[in-house]
């Protein structure tokens, strides 16, 4: 089980970034996203629609109390932050974990997250994007195999093309 | 030279996603982003501020005529799209290119991009995020070494920590 905890969602301002986090998490092998911050049914609904059309078992769950998500998590927790230890140094150890909670924050992450996460890991020590950091983390964690994942019960499936588009419907 | 061409930016709606694209491009080793679509000085200014504080030579340039950016590019062009050929199959060939233009679209990409790009490559055939796709592409292209890149003339630099935050100012 690999889950993502998205902290500090703000309705309106963060809709697209949080949606990208959920979609990237699903596409790149995560099982679940816990959303925290302001409750936003629109995201849960839109990701539900993607799962229905594109298959797989991915789910999104809103949890007001993100502390309880961290506390009750059975495995290790890793917080992605530019202040953390380099991904290149830590990914080998993290890859051995069976149940991992990957925490991505919004603008201001409470200091207790830095303190209580088992690992704080940076995907470069430069300011960039929690979507980018999460995607690279997942690609490294699953060693690129996530890109070949088949999503069961898909109604739509891409047939890869050198040029142009092809979708199989009702596969 | 590795540059990114961002198609179809819309003022307001796309500000944060396009900003994340620029920041991820910079953090993960790209030299430049060409922005197209609606002109948006706020992004060019905010990324300029990041470069001033965090160093390096990265630049963002607005080009209304994205076709001319593609046409005049000296090296190969690769369009990231869920409809393309799998990254795992193509990254080996692409990694040999010295000058690469990586094209990322907004919602509706004109069919001539699919037709005229030298490569159309998918970072998973699932719907997700152009920020995520770009980040994974760059990490694969630079084989993870981009995460250790030093940015010359930085005023700020992170000192990696297992827990907590440390920034060196005026390094």
Would you spell out the secondary-structure blueprint of this structure?
Two copies of one chain form a homodimer.
Chain A: E1 2-9, H1 15-27, E2 32-37, H2 41-54, E3 59-62, H3 66-72, E4 76-86, H4 87-94, E5 100-104, H5 111-116, E6 119-122, H6 130-141, E7 156-158, E8 167-169
Catalytic activity (chains A, B): cytidine(56) in tRNA + S-adenosyl-L-methionine = 2'-O-methylcytidine(56) in tRNA + S-adenosyl-L-homocysteine + H(+)
Keywords (chains A, B): Cytoplasm, Methyltransferase, S-adenosyl-L-methionine, Transferase, tRNA processing
Subunit structure (chains A, B): Homodimer.
Describe this structure in words.
Chain A is of the alpha/beta class and 171 residues long. Chain A has one domain (2-169): Alpha/beta knot (3-Layer(aba) Sandwich), CATH 3.40.1280. Chain A has 6 helices and 8 strands, in the order E-H-E-H-E-H-E-H-E-H-E-H-E-E. Chain A has helices at 15-27, 41-54, 66-72, 87-94, 111-116, 130-141, and strands at 2-9, 32-37, 59-62, 76-86, 100-104, 119-122, 156-158, 167-169. In chain A, the strands form 2 sheets. A 6-stranded parallel beta sheet of chain A has the order 3-2-1-5-4-6, with helices on both faces. The longest helix of chain A has 14 residues, at 41-54. Chain A is globular. The two termini of chain A are 27 Å apart. At the A-B interface, helix 1, strand 4, helix 5, strand 6 and helix 6 of A face helix 1, strand 4, helix 5, strand 6 and helix 6 of B. Chains A, B: Pfam families: Trm56 (PF01994). Chains A, B: It is found in: Cytoplasm. Chains A, B: Its main location: cytoplasm. Chains A, B: Homodimer. Chains A, B: One of its GO terms (molecular function) is tRNA (cytidine(56)-2'-O)-methyltransferase activity.
């Amino acid at each position: 089980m690999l889950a993502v905890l998205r902290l500090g969602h703000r309705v309106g301002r963060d809709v697209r970034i949080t949606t990208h986090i959920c979609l990237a998490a699903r596409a790149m092998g995560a099982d679940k996203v816990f959303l925290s911050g302001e409750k936003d049914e629109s995201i849960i609904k839109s990701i539900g629609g993607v799962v229905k059309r594109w298959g797989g078992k991915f789910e999104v769950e809103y949890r007001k109390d993100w502390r309880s998500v961290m506390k009750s998590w059975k495995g290790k927790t890793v917080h992605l932050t530019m202040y953390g230890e380099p991904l290149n140094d830590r990914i080998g150890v993290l890859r051995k974990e069976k149940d991992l909670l990957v925490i991505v924050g919004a603008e201001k992450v409470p200091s207790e997250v830095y303190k209580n996460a088992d690992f704080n890991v940076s995907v470069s020590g430069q300011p960039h994007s929690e979507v980018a950091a999460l995607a690279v983390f997942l690609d490294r964690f699953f060693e690129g195999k996530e890109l070949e994942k088949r999503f069961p019960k898909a109604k739509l499936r891409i047939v890869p093309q050198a040029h142009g588009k092809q979708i199989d419907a009702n596969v």
